Structures are given as structure tokens and as C-alpha cells.
Amino acid sequence: MATTATRTDPLSFLGAAMDELRQKGTHFKLRVLESEQSPECTFDGKRVINIASNNYLGLTTHPRLREAALDAIRKYGVGSGAVRTVCGTMRIHMELEEKIARFKNVEACVVFQSGFTANAGTVSAILGKEDFIISDELNHASIIDGARLSRAKILVFRHKDIAHAGQQLASVKDQPGRKLVITDGVFSMDGDIGPLPQLCDLAEKYGAIMMVDDAHSSGVLGRNGRGTVDHFNVHGRVDVQVGTLSKAMGALGGYVCGSRELIDFLYHRARPFLFSTSHPPSVAATCIAALEILEQEPERIERLWENTRFFKKELGTLGFNIGGQNTPASETPITPIIVGDGKLTMEFSRELFKEGILATGIAFPTVPEGKARIRTIMSATHTRPELEQALEVLGRVGKRLGIIQ
Fold first, then answer.
1. pLDDT tens-digit series, residues 245-288
2. Residue 1: pLDDT over 60
3. DSSP string of 339-374?
4. Catalytic residue among 93, 179, 216, 312
5. 56, 380 in Cβ contact below 8 A?
6. Residue 375 falls within a domain, yes or no?
């Protein structure tokens, strides 16, 4: 009988990479949610106050969303059975897209499986190797990946630096190919708002396509949560609007809004749309219900901002660095607590969890080296006692670890 030689593991380099993270103190294990996604919930068997979730308006547990999902399951079943272009486009998918388009004041909309695929699929579909992308240096990873997939030439401008963006556009104005200016509406790690009106001015000056990713402003900024285009009143000046259904909307998915011609093109050329099964009908139904709640319960957004103003003020009073010192200053419910050192940040997060607060540490490569932070996000459904308790623990643990005095 032939003997089998001992096989060398070809993936052993992955273990070495994980060992390096452990040595740096930035290795993490996934925390497992064992209850509803709510301001107070259970992770890994421990009841904690959650100040890390993207559930801005508390819609993950809203009774109307629950009922909409159940009704859709009873009527349509649990899955669509195919991609949209084969036989997986259900009437409820079209209803959702039509409702989003009306909400955003545009001609048409297409829904993707996630905000990530909406960004990556759109940028890579509308541009090619002869084109140019002018992109903010802090844009979301999905924008960066979409830019790379497009094979377009990428020109990065310093964060929110309009003069530098203009210089980048001017440098290629005589080059053949399309130009795309792209920015986050709200930047996910720092919570600051993109300078949309000024970027629109540049795009119009140089004949460029204007695109904004409104993932963290959907349901947060603008009338009833319509996003930065409405917040800045630049309707008709942004050619491609991306949003999410996974954060303030409380469910799952992403979408792209724009002209009917743009959406028809994405139906034919956006690879995530063409090669991914469409949303379960229950998800589409919950998103429709969420949009109705945005229109009918504006007080949720008011409560979100009340909590945001209170929490920011108190974090600053405690002495935490919450941006503005070599980092952008937060202007939204995303408020980073800048620690700097990755290992200390992760220790801070672990100690907070032991004290009953879920506040996730974020380090390199999600943020640059030396800018590790705890990212806190407020919800409309946080109570004042919950926030006061979170602040007390943050202050106590922060002092114990030498993060504040």
C-alpha cells in the first residue's frame, strides 16, 4: 500500500497573521446577540446597554415591521426563489423601489442585497478603465472596492478638502473618459457630514457625475430622514444616491436612486443585482413599513437628536476626545471616543463590556494606525437612565485605564 506524505497546510500563513493581531492586542472574537437588537440586550449571556448599534430609530423591533414581515410570509412565503432578472422580481420588490423613489424625490430606484453591494455594484458598472474617480480619502470600503473593480483611475482628495478635490478634477479635465466625484454623506467612523453642495459645484464645473453614499444619513438627516441631498437641498444636483435599509430602516439591503435611465442600466449591468437572489418578501415588506413610519412618526428622529446632543455634551464634559483634535469633529449620532492605541482601545471595550456596556473597539485597518476608537451611536429608543448609566461606566473605566483624568 502506498504511503501518503504528510501534507503541509497551505493556509498556515493565516494563523501567523492572527498571532500577530493577538500580539498587538487587536484580535477580537465575535460577540453573539441572544435577544432583540435593542438599547438594552443580551450578548454572550450578559445583559448590557448597547451603544454600538446602527439601529438609529429603534425600528428593528417596531410592531408594524414585525406584522408586515409576518403578513408577507403568509402571503408570499419565505423566499423569492431566483435573481431579479430570471423570475425573482416580486410585486412587493417593485412597490418598495417605487416607494423609495417617491421618498427621495427621484425618478427611479433599484434595491440591492446590501449597501455594500449597492456601492460596489454601481461604481463598477457605470465606469471603466478609461474613466476617473475623484474620491474622499475617508470614503467607505464599499466605494473603494467598487472603484477598484471598475478599473478606473482613482484620484483621492484629502478629507472634505474642496480645494484639493478641485485640483484633482482640474488635473484630468482634458483627459478623455468620464469623471465621477464621490463622497459619503455621513462618514461612518467620525460622524461628520460630507460637503455636498461644494462638491456639487465642482462636479457641475467640470462636467462630472456626482454620487453620494447616504448610508448613515438615511433616516437621520433631512426631512423625515431623506438624507444629505434633502438636508442641503441639492435635489436634482446629485446623479447617483446610494442608501441603506440596514441601519435606520431596521431591516436589510441597500438601494440606488437616480434617473430612470440609470436604474434601467443597473438592471442590466450591476453584477450584484444580476447574480444575487432577491430579498425575501418579508424583508421588502418591513422596509416598506419602515418608510411609512419615517413619514408618520417624525418624533423618532427628534428623540434621536435629543439623545445625541445630550450624550455628546456629557462625553466632552468627562474629558474624552470625541473628535476635532487631529480627527474630524462629529456632527451626527455617531460619536467616536478617540483612544489612539489599538491595544488600549480593545482593552477599554472589553472592560466596558464587563461593566455592562457594549461599546465596540475599532482599530486598524478599519481606521488608520494611531486613531483607534470606541464608536458610539445613539438611538431614538435609548432612555435617559440608560445613557446616564453608560456615561457613568465610561467615565469610571476611562479613568481606571488612564484614558481620561
1. 999 999 999 999 999 999 999 999 999 999 999 999 999 999 99
2. no
3. EE-HHHHHHHHHHHHHTTEE--EE-TTTS-TT-EEE
4. 216
5. yes
6. yes
Q: Is-catalytic flag, 75?
A: no
Which one of 159, 247, 279, 382 is the catalytic residue? 247
Domain that holds residue 115: 61-296
Q: Does 382 qualify as catalytic in the annotation?
A: no
Amino acid identity, residue 403?
Answer: I
Whether the pTM exceeds 0.90: the reply is yes
**13 found inside a domain:** no
Look up residue 223 and give its DSSP letter. G
Same domain, 242 and 356: no
Q: How many domains is the chain partitioned into structurally?
A: 2
Which residue in the list 53, 135, 188, 349 is annotated as catalytic? 188
Q: pLDDT tens digits, residue range 77-136?
A: 999 999 999 999 999 999 999 999 999 999 999 999 999 999 999 999 999 999 999 999
- Residue 5 maps to a domain: no
Q: Is 268 a catalytic residue?
A: no
- Whether residue 306 is found in the same domain as residue 184: no
Residue 317's domain is classified under what CATH number?
3.90.1150.10
CA atoms of 200 and 87, how far apart (whole Å): 38
